[in-house]
Design goal:
Largest sheet of chain A: none
Largest interface: A-B, 65 and 63 residues
Number of helices of chain A: 9
CATH architecture of one domain in chain A: Orthogonal Bundle
Distance between the termini of chain A: 61 Å
CATH superfamily of one domain in chain A: Tetracycline Repressor, domain 2
Helix content of chain A: 55-70%
Shape of chain A: elongated
Number of strands of chain A: 0
CATH topology of one domain in chain A: Tetracycline Repressor, domain 2
Oligomer: homodimer
Radius of gyration of chain A: 22 Å
Chain lengths: 233, 233
DNA sequence: CTCAATTCTTACTCTGAAGTAAGTTTACCG
DNA sequence: CGGTAAACTTACTTCAGAGTAAGAATTGAG
């Protein structure tokens, strides 16, 4: 502890420090305006070290992306693993998601809010990360539905639709939580489950909503399919 | 038509052409990597014209932002205005939202997917645009609930929560629609309404979902070292 | 036709930041 | 010790792209 005079730090450690700071700066500024100089300075070293260890700015960003995606998926999985009933696993997973996003806002921003302004290599990795998260949710949704209904099994498309709704809602609620600091991840999750899950249960149970007679639909056949929206896969 | 040789174009027209191209380029590349030169070239003029008319790159982006936000809100409002029952107005509004986002993907990307990498002036305008969209949805939700339940009136917070869920889900479903080209905005909207709206009706009617386990405190878990994640590579 | 306003261009300046060459210090191993 | 590899630095080069100066071409009014 008193040995803090060690300026020299082994590569493995320094790399993580660099990535730590890079996540912060990328989240704050975005990919392009973020300068490697600033990241290096925050990490307590000079720029060439960054290039020595991470190759390029793009490589640095990819490292951030991979590490944070891994962490998020890990948190999600770990939370859902030990719980028994699928319905609860979904709840635990979403809860962990909110907790993670609340605690590591920078990670989420880097993972999610960087659609454009990126080279193809990075775009591919972002897509991969998104798919990984989405796949976790999709799995939980499918299991949860099967359990809750006892018989209904969602097709890929349905489960994917639901997963998109949940992830999108969760993302948006991340913003909402910023203006409601008293809300905990658990409370938000419960509310979301209440809105979406109860609805899904009932829809699968046969309680549909549909627009009545369209008074003046511009271009849509009125009654093509009445209530067979859900179990088509 | 050889008469199309009119090189000179009045300012008002040229400005719109510039903004048209700017929206495309900003959406494709993101704010910083977008070059004013490229925008100018696509608009058929040279760079100084852009600066003469729009002041700066930031001014150009702000013009894009304002115009597209106005268009989206207008589409939303117009769709919802003529319909009678609030529940249907919500449906019409969301439907218009999907239709707009499907048709004008660039507009939506510029409006929504540009969180960081922006100066404070722009950030403020983005926030404004988001709030405008959110306020529309919130209004429809509140009316819809009041109508559907007959008595329940949502507080600001509740309505805002629901609006965030809907907008976030809609945004995410925009991605989903890309891999499902046969889906129409109407069908997607109906599915979303089925998931969210039916659930909300029932929740407000007293059918709650809650985790069976009594709320175990997130801050003080009993034993947290069950499954280790030592290997992170 | 003339003149003035508007539209538009060529040809710069200048800054910030990615990436690198070449060398210097520290740590550890025998 | 001494020497070697790993950790680290200073001091560049290079380039893209924002922003501008100065003036040319077009149009329309009188």
């Amino acid at each position: 502890m008193s040995d803090k005079r060690r300026r020299r730090v082994p590569r493995q450690v320094r790399e993580q420090q660099i990535i730590d700071m890079a996540v912060q700066v990328f989240a704050r500024r975005g990919y392009h305006p973020a300068s490697v100089d600033e990241i290096a300075e925050l990490a307590g070293i000079s720029k060439p070290m960054v290039y020595l260890y991470l190759d390029s700015k793009e490589g640095l960003f990819l490292a951030c992306l991979r590490r944070e995606a891994e962490r998020l998926v890990a948190a999600f999985r770990k939370a859902a693993r030990d719980v028994g009933p699928p319905e609860l696993r979904l709840w635990a997973g979403l809860s962990a998601f909110f907790a993670f996003v609340t605690e590591h806002r920078d990670s989420w921003v880097v993972l999610h809010r960087q659609t454009s302004e990126l080279s193809t290599a990075i775009t591919a990795e972002v897509a991969r990360a998104r798919r990984a998260v989405m796949a976790e949710v999709t799995g939980l949704v499918r299991d949860g539905i099967a359990e809750a209904t006892g018989s209904v099994r969602l097709g890929d498309e349905e489960a994917d639709f639901v997963a998109h709704v949940l992830v999108g809602a969760a993302d948006s609620l991340t913003d909402w939580m910023e203006s409601h600091p008293d809300e905990t991840p658990e409370r938000v999750t419960r509310r979301l489950m209440n809105m979406v899950w109860v609805g899904m249960r009932n829809v699968l149970g046969g309680e549909f909503w549909e627009p009545p007679e369209p008074p003046r639909t511009p271009e849509a056949p009125p009654s093509e399919e009445a209530g067979e929206e859900s179990t088509e896969g």
